[in-house]
């Protein structure tokens, strides 16, 4: 067993975990943050995607101990003061989800996409960047639409702030 | 139209919990003292089990129990059933081999469950499962259905000589043969429908709990039909009487058919929880899902189409061999028979049809319903044949279809189905306009100038949904009735709970079902809650599959609403001293027609529950239930057109345009219907271009992870252009037909017709992977050079 200390959704936590505990397992079982989902065993589907120190990682592909000392943000941590994140709102408004299982990973991936590439995203870029997230329900059509809509809205927000 | 009523693009009520990470899926649940299950699975596709040694595993830390099939049988747990009896053409019942939740004598596919370990942690359970030593005597293996029928093929079950489950037929053979004898042209093709793995993103999961003081079981599980699960677990697997077994299907992350069936793991967890005296949870990993979720499709077909001198179809003859895997899953027998061959008439007037289907055992995972279930296979056969026949007789594919369309309704096909309504030409015209069919030649010329090959292909599909009239399916061998139930509970303050036997696992019932109530009563959808997925709350239901929740599930709600409205009107008439016939319901108010007298729905509801002033003899309360049994199947239909560009240097196919024009009858929420079509299209395009389930000759599954099985990703597919036409279904009160499967049914032949058009070839096998397309281009080039 090893002690891990990290920040999860802004809250400092620490806990004892077996060395081989995955970050995804730690979040789901030790922290009860079940919005991070496990959809495969090979880091392909992206349902477990979280942000580690501001960068997207597949939490099924790293150990909890590797995340010690870092700041993790999960799907539960992106709403602010009860206000949905623009990306969450865009998924709802554009019917970018059906069963909801891939959705947390999709949203976290989409936010990361905008963090890395900015808000000027075309359809081709969005589709290419979603390569690491699999959805079986939506056919991606409305996910792409949602991300584009969110990117446009975030661009407006940024412009207004300038 | 009310603001949130039928036809409105209401945003989904269920979304908030999913976008915030607050969905509650089975694996999200834990219970005090819960143990974790891991299964010992066969590493061989066919072997006799000589011994199962659990000594080492039992000594490992945290392990409670290692249980096997001998104990399961001794405890009286029944064999897994198939719920649809098919008779062969000689009248004999299908030949079904015994299927046990845990096998202790002969394993017949890789991944088959042999034993279950329960331990304190998941890792302990998995480590102990690894330590169980199974001694096998390997047996010869067969994985392809045509090989399984050959003389001398390895035999799977003593009950099924020659691995033949049934040899079934439909239609008039002699009359069809005569049509061929008199044909002016015959088109003949060999058509394979590739084996697919459904792959809902949430893996299957089961959490079982036994309360010894009440002798009561609870099962949380990933089910599309929890009531059917309870019925089967109780009546056939002898887990517990129905009143002592609660099955809950909470949020379920997609199903596509694969979560209809009751699998060995659910049975084993229920059985194990009592034996070990603690709650037991099992969640599939993705490789287990590939190995053990029921697969889909896997047909080998030879089809022949007979035309007269005017290019009218006179006969259709189809021979299909269907691979059902190593065991018969719950509805497996119905898929290649009554869900397949009954759709072989397509959208066309075909006077003579004869189909013969042989279902076969092989050393592969069981095969059962997957999105479309039989209807994609039928559509693929029909629409590949139509496209090829048109080209062979020198007609434009659209014109050949027009010539043969069914135009008068009702239309009785030679294969059971009676089409009730449709306008196939309207969908065809709409799709051709939307894709600018006339501009294709110019686009093709542009592609050619850029060194690319361009092709266009269409598919005019029909399917049968609204599954199904109970008496009709009963006469065809179904073990259950396929009605649906609903209960509308009006609370004293006028808010409403609708209890439904349908189950939503992505379809958005919490929104669309509320829209129906809102449309009828004029109440906001916020005041209407949909309750589903729990056998303790909803009395009985048949679940969600076969695009039935709208046409059947909502029809049941509509019937219950009729009763609620009738009682509410009686109360309102009494309170307002008016005639019951003068009461109308509008915008949440009950009004006396022609006056300004009115009561709010809340006032009437409250009066029903205070019961201070009700009509003489009326019972208090406002709660009504209904069962709806369909009178016929429903027949969604449409036209899909796909336009592709192929890079001849690499064999990579890109879909440049895709139009879907569907007729679903009445649409409750266009936004949700469009989403269903998008998802179906990508599953169909996945089948046509990417997905293939590959076993090696020893029965090892080579495509058992997302590294090896090509799931469609966002950059493999385009955005779509969707159109709709509407002919209302006359068979149900809402005029609905169903939209859940159409995309997956109609799209594969459109894609393959487009690719073969681009390549200038007739035949190709799905999936159209770059390697296969490139090879076809080389072969075709060599053929042309030789000519």
UniProtKB/TrEMBL annotation, chain A:
InterPro entries attached to this UniProt entry: 2Fe-2S-bd, 2Fe-2S-bd_dom_sf, 2Fe-2S_ferredoxin-like_sf, 2Fe-2S_ferredoxin-type, Beta-grasp_dom_sf, Diverse_Oxidoreductases
Organism field: Pseudovibrio japonicus
Keyword Iron-sulfur carried by entry: yes
Protein origin, superkingdom: Bacteria
Record carries keyword Iron-sulfur: yes
Sections of the chain in a coiled coil: none
Protein's name in the database: Carbon-monoxide dehydrogenase small subunit
Domain 2Fe-2S ferredoxin-type: 2-78
Keyword set, alphabetical order: 2Fe-2S, Iron, Iron-sulfur, Metal-binding, Oxidoreductase
Automatic annotation (TrEMBL), chain B:
Keyword Oxidoreductase in record: yes
Xref: Pfam families: Ald_Xan_dh_C (PF01315), MoCoBD_1 (PF02738), MoCoBD_2 (PF20256)
Keywords from the named record: Molybdenum, Oxidoreductase
Entry annotated with the keyword Oxidoreductase: yes
Aldehyde oxidase/xanthine dehydrogenase a/b hammerhead domain sequence ranges: 20-140
PANTHER family attached to this UniProt entry: ALDEHYDE OXIDASE 1-RELATED, XANTHINE DEHYDROGENASE
Protein name: Carbon monoxide dehydrogenase
């Amino acid at each position: 067993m090893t002690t891990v200390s990290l920040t999860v959704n802004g809250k400092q936590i620490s806990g004892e975990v077996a060395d081989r505990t995955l970050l995804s397992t730690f979040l789901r079982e030790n922290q009860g943050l079940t919005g991070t989902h496990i959809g495969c065993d090979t880091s392909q589907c992206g349902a477990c995607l979280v942000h580690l120190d501001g960068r997207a990682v597949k939490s099924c592909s790293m150990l909890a101990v590797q995340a010690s000392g870092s700041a993790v943000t999960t799907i539960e941590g992106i709403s602010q003061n009860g206000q949905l994140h623009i990306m969450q709102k865009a998924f709802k408004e554009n019917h970018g989800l059906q069963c909801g299982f891939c959705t947390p990973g999709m949203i976290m991936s989409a936010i990361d996409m905008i963090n890395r590439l900015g808000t000027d995203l075309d359809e081709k870029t969005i589709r290419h960047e979603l390569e690491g997230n699999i959805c079986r329900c939506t056919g991606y059509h409305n996910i792409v639409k949602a991300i584009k809509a969110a990117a446009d809205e975030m661009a407006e927000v940024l412009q207004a702030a300038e | 139209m009310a603001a949130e009523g039928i036809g409105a693009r209401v945003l989904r009520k269920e979304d908030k919990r999913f976008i915030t990470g607050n969905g509650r899926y089975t694996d999200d649940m834990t219970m005090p003292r819960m143990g974790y299950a891991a299964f010992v699975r066969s590493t061989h596709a066919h072997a006799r089990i000589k011994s199962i040694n659990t000594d080492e595993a039992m000594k490992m830390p945290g392990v409670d129990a290692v249980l096997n099939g001998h104990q399961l049988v001794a405890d009286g747990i029944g064999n897994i059933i198939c719920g649809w009896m098919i008779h062969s053409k000689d009248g004999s019942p299908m030949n079904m081999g015994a299927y046990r939740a845990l096998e202790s004598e002969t394993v017949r596919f890789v991944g088959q469950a042999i034993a279950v370990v329960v331990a304190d942690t998941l890792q302990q359970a998995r480590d102990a499962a690894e330590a169980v030593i199974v001694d096998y005597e390997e047996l010869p293996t067969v994985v392809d259905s045509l090989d399984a029928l050959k003389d001398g093929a390895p035999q799977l079950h003593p009950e099924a000589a020659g691995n033949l489950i049934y040899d079934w037929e439909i239609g008039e053979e002699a009359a069809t043969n005569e049509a061929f004898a008199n044909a002016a042209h015959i088109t003949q093709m060999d058509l394979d429908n590739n084996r697919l793995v459904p792959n809902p993103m949430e893996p299957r999961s089961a959490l079982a709990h036994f309360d010894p003081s009440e002798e009561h079981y609870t099962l949380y599980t990933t089910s599309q039909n929890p009531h059917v699960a309870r019925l089967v677990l109780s009546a056939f697997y002898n887990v517990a009487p129905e009143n002592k077994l609660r099955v809950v299907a909470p949020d379920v992350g997609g199903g596509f058919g694969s979560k209809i069936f009751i699998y060995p793991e659910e049975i084993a967890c229920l059985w194990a929880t009592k034996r070990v005296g603690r709650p037991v949870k099992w969640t599939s990993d993705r490789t287990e899902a590939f190995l053990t979720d029921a697969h889909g499709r896997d047909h080998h077909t030879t089809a022949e189409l007979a035309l007269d001198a005017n290019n009218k179809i006179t006969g259709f003859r189809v021979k299909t061999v269907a691979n059902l895997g190593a065991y018969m899953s719950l509805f497996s027998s119905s898929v290649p028979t009554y869900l397949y061959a009954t759709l072989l008439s397509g959208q066309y007037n075909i006077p003579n049809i004869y189909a013969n289907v042989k279902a076969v055992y092989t050393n592969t995972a069981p095969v059962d319903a997957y999105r479309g279930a039989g209807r994609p296979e039928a559509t693929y056969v029909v629409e590949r044949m139509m496209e090829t026949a048109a080209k062979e007789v020198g007609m434009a594919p659209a014109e050949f279809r027009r010539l043969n369309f069914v135009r008068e309704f009702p239309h009785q096909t030679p294969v059971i189905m009676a089409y009730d309504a449709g306008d196939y030409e309207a969908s065809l015209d709409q799709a051709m306009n939307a894709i600018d069919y006339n501009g294709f030649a110019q686009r093709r010329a542009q592609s050619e100038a850029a060194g690319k090959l361009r092709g266009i292909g269409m598919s005019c599909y029909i399917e049968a949904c609204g599954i199904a009239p109970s008496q009709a399916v009963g006469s065809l061998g179904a073990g259950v009735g396929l009605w649906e139930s609903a209960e509308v509970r009006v609370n004293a303050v006028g808010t409403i709970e609708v209890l439904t036997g349908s189950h939503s696992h992505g379809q958005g019932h919490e929104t669309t079902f509320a829209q129906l109530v809102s449309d009828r009563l004029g109440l906001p959808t916020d005041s209407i809650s949909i309750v589903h997925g729990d056998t303790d709350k909803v009395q009985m239901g048949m679940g969600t599959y076969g695009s039935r929740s709208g046409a059947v599930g909502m029809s049941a709600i509509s019937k219950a609403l009729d009763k609620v409205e009738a009682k509410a009107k009686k109360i309102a008439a009494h309170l307002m001293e008016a005639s019951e016939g003068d009461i109308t319901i509008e915008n949440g108010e009950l009004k006396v027609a022609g006056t300004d007298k009115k009561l709010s729905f809340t006032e009437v509801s409250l009066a029903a529950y205070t019961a201070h002033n009700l009509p003489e003899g009326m019972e208090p309360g406002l709660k009504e239930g209904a069962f709806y049994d369909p009178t016929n199947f429903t027949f969604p239909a449409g036209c899909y057109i796909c336009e592709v560009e192929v890079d001849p240097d690499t064999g990579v196919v890109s879909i440049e345009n895709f139009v879907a024009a569907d007729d679903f009858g009445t649409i409750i929420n266009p936004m949700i219907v469009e989403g269903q079509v998008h998802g179906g299209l990508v599953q169909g395009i996945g089948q046509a271009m990417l997905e293939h389930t590959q076993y090696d000759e020893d029965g090892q599954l080579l495509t058992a992870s997302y590294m090896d099985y090509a799931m469609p990703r966002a950059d493999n597919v385009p955005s779509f252009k969707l159109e709709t036409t509407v002919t209302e279904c006359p068979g149900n009160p809402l005029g609905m037909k169903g939209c859940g499967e159409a995309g997956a049914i109609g799209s594969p032949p459109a894609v393959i017709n487009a690719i073969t058009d681009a390549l200038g070839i007739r035949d190709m096998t799905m999936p159209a992977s770059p390697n296969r397309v490139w090879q076809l281009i080389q072969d075709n080039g060599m053929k042309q050079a030789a000519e």
